């Protein structure tokens, strides 16, 4: 079984975080921009490519702020994700534009991107949901635990 690496962008501007708005199976939820690392790419290259594909934007990549592990057999979608084991590296990023369209290769179910106020994150279905409190803590205090473990 293969462990997959993924790079995610934590894009913040004016106390808001940019999230992809998803709609699947009559359910709306949000995720961070980013995705799987391809063979031969480093994490920064993967993140730049994914942000072009999903939000059509160039990102300036900053520090690594969180590492999340996802072991599918341990979570509510185990029937579908039992085989999945993914490491997600979340980087603080900056963009110079304020509005976004779907990029040149959006995710299945992606309907756009939306700025979410950090103080209101707990009111949104942002996945992984356990990440919301870590983001709020990080932006309130400027520090947080980097390795989040196997959270969902």
UniProtKB/TrEMBL annotation:
Superkingdom per UniProt: Bacteria
SUPFAM superfamilies in UniProt: Nudix
Cofactor: Mg(2+)
Location of the Nudix hydrolase domain: 1-144
Pfam families in the record: NUDIX
InterPro entries for this protein: NUDIX_hydrolase-like_dom_sf, NUDIX_hydrolase_dom
Record's keyword terms, sorted: Hydrolase
Name the record gives this protein: NUDIX domain-containing protein
Organism: Solibacillus palustris
Lineage: Bacteria, Bacillati, Bacillota, Bacilli, Bacillales
């Amino acid at each position: 079984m293969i462990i997959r690496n993924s790079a995610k962008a934590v894009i913040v501007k004016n106390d808001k975080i940019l999230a992809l708005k998803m709609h699947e199976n009559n359910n709306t939820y949000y995720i961070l921009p980013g995705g799987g690392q391809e063979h031969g790419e480093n994490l920064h290259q993967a993140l730049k490519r994914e942000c072009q594909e999903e939000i059509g934007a160039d990102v300036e990549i900053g520090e690594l702020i969180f590492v999340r592990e996802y072991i599918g057999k341990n979570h509510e979608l185990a029937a579908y994700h039992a085989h999945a084991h993914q490491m997600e590296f979340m980087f603080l990023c900056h963009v110079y534009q304020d509005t976004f369209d779907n990029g040149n290769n959006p995710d299945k179910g992606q309907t756009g991107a939306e700025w979410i106020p950090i103080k209101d994150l707990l009111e949104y279905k942002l996945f992984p949901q356990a990440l919301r409190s870590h983001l709020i803590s990080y932006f309130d205090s400027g520090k947080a635990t980097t390795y989040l473990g196997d959270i969902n």
